[in-house]
Amino acid sequence: MRNLLYDLSGGKPSALIKPVLYTTLDTFIKGWFSFFALLIILELIKPLQAPGEIINFTNLTMYCLGILASAALATLFAVLSFRHTYTSAYSLAAQGRIELAEHLRKLPLGFFHAREPGELAATMLNDYTLLEHTLSHVFSRFMAGLLLPVLTPLLLAFVDVRMAIAMFVTLPAALLLMYLSLKLQQVWGGELNAAKIDCAGRLQEYLAGMKVIKACNSGGASFGRLKNAWENLMHKSIKIEAGLAPFMLLATGVLRSGLTVMILAGVYLLQGGSLDVTVLVAFLVIGAQIFEPLTATLVSFNELTFAAMAARRISAIRTAPVLSGAGAAGQGGYAIEFERVGFGYGPEAVFSNLTFSLPAKAVTAIVGPSGSGKSTILRLIARFWEVQNGQIRLGGTNIREIEPEQLLKNISIVFQDVYLFHDTIYNNIKIGKEDAAREEIEQAARLAQCHDFITALPQGYDTLVGEGGSTLSGGEKQRISLARAFLKNAPIILLDEATAALDAENERQLQQAINALVSSKTVVVIAHRLKTIKNAANIIVLANGQVVEQGSHEQLMNNQALYRRLWDLQEQSGRWQISNG
């Protein structure tokens, strides 16, 4: 139970105390209605039980006042229960989503790589929505309802043990049926959640690939993976609803039959002369009041079980280990060293024993065939992924010992695949330095050769870009990404084919800007067009996850090895043209 409370509340179980307390008091006070109603009935039938007895109107008045007082207190606690329950439910869910998003930011990219693309979205949306509903509509009532089967038999046993046993004799059988349904729910619920995640992933894939679908004139109905995912979700949903419903209906039917058992037992004992009619009436009144909330508690158990499964999925993400480290970056300079580094995205290794050095305040270019691991090196330097063997040192310090935020604070990255948020151009550039003044942002844009096209837009810097920057061209997105790097002005620059999406004129201007950006900085640049890095101080040539050559452009050209072959191939491809034949 403690783990359940911890998971449901996102690690804040104390936030559930007031909702449960006030709901329990509300439920308990409402029980006084039945108690005072019973006293009124007993008072009214006194003359029937004993001729000569008269009705005590003083007692009747007190009992009626008791009902009024119960109504006032029940209203008070109902209002408090409503306020605290809904406030806690939605606050916990909102805080939980924010904290989970912050936690995700601190996880290595390997965590995301190992999951379906729709899994995290399903957790943030579906699982938290389920928790909101459970905490606001189910949990407090369920906890309050648990008191009924615990306290009521004990209290009624003081009146008549036989009748108390008869009333609750069916409860163990109902609980056994619920236990059996719980076991099925755990298995089928896992299958249903997996189907939901698969649907979310396939839908993302379908929408992201819409351009390809249209280009190939492929109808949506022919997208088999999405169709199969939705059909599978339909079958899993029907299976769990149809499979659990008989257990639930049977459990509630068995539970409610306890009232019938109690009536039969009462009539039998009354005929035998061992039960007073007032006791039978008391049990009838209480029984009529108790079985409805008991049934509601039993039904809500399934909902609570689903919520518990969602809470465990959220907790599994919240407890995923974040990148560790506590040291500062740059104390020993900004030279970067790879020592016997081993890494792979899956079972196959990208690197097995990679060793090389990147000097500080110099430009190092990394070239090689596709798939040789060039972009992976940049990801490992930024610690987006953790090395599996060996170590990477910055200024002589293992980057695993550096606080991740401090490490990234000293690195500016320009990716080959630029992503812009659905926000203004101004805010997309400002990500590079959150406290930057407008003048700094505009100056960074000028250096990145994007100020002119930004000011030509109708809203200028306040122009909204589509999701991922879809309303801008590839070259425009690339230059905005470079403006971020100019604005951040970090001592380490990582450029992953930064000019790939630019035309010849913009590339020339941007090369000049990059030359200004990288002066006196440790720069690692990946380039497929070798002409753009021929002036680099150091060029590392990769092949099959290993350094096969290293040196200046002139040295590598004289080696007559892989670099020279790549250069010659690019020279030949530069002369390629489409012919009529």
UniProtKB/TrEMBL annotation:
Compartment(s) where it occurs, according to its Swiss-Prot or TrEMBL record: Cell membrane
Domain (ABC transmembrane type-1): residue spans on this chain: 27-305
Topology relative to the membrane: Multi-pass membrane protein
Enzyme Commission number(s) of this protein: 3.6.3.-
Entry keywords, A to Z: ATP-binding, Hydrolase, Membrane, Nucleotide-binding, Transmembrane, Transmembrane helix
Enzyme kind, highest EC tier: hydrolase
Domain ABC transporter: 336-569
Entry annotated with the keyword Hydrolase: yes
Primary localization: membrane
SMART domains tied to this protein: AAA (SM00382)
TM helices/strands, residue ranges: 20-45, 57-82, 138-158, 165-182, 244-270, 277-301
Pfam families: ABC_membrane (PF00664), ABC_tran (PF00005)
InterPro entries documented for this protein: AAA+_ATPase, ABC1_TM_dom, ABC1_TM_sf, ABC_transporter-like_ATP-bd, ABC_transporter-like_CS, P-loop_NTPase, Type_1_exporter
Molecular function in Gene Ontology: ATP binding; hydrolase activity
Protein name: Multidrug export ATP-binding/permease protein
Taxonomy of the source species: Bacteria, Bacillati, Bacillota, Negativicutes, Selenomonadales
